[in-house]
Amino acid sequence: MRKIISYPLSVLYYILFGLTLISLHGIQWVCFNFFGYYAHKKSVDLLCFFFVANTYVLGTRYKIENMEKIPSGVPLIIASNHQSFFDITTISWFMRKFHVKFVSKIELGKGIPSISYNLRNGGSVLINRKEPKQALREIRKLSEYIEKYNRSAVIFPEGTRCKFGRPKPFAESGLKILCKYAPSAYMVPVTVNNAWKMNRWGNFPLGVGVKITLTIHDPFPIKDMLFSEVFERAEKEIVNGIVLEE
Q: pTM of whole model > 0.85?
């Protein structure tokens, strides 16, 4: 029954999603080209608001835990598990005050209204997984950027989305570069739960009645810590927070 209901609701969601992408693209362009970074940031916040609001037609609910723990006025490295596109929209909206920027795959840098424009111009970086040198160079640029402006880098160490919530092994290289070139940053381990249920049947129909949970674990300064300790602690906290369901 739930899957049957999801068909018309998914159609409605995708209509709203498409309208959001098209309408906010022009607004972003104007804000970025005529009014600068902060105006563009507001337009991206509006985009992310609608990304989240659109999911309410699917009965999606959100629970954000421990946001108050995150320090202000310092660079942040936000490391999270990766279950779905909806991880990204959830982090983007609910953590917007921290000026989040993403390490994204290069394929997303073109062809998608609003999203591609923001990734190219909003401070995020696009990496080519087939070219490790290019990828690490771009991540270094991001780390230097957040160090200079006290902003936040979001990275998914698994690299690709996991299935059914089961975490994949974390890769060290991207996190290592972020830590090396943003030495005053705080590591913020984040666990996303249930976002995979949005795509339990693929991209159509979408899951209905899903409760996505975003849990922020205790942030900690990476200064004076060995990278191996930072990596181990972050991975352990993220993975231990994942709730697996058969």
A: yes
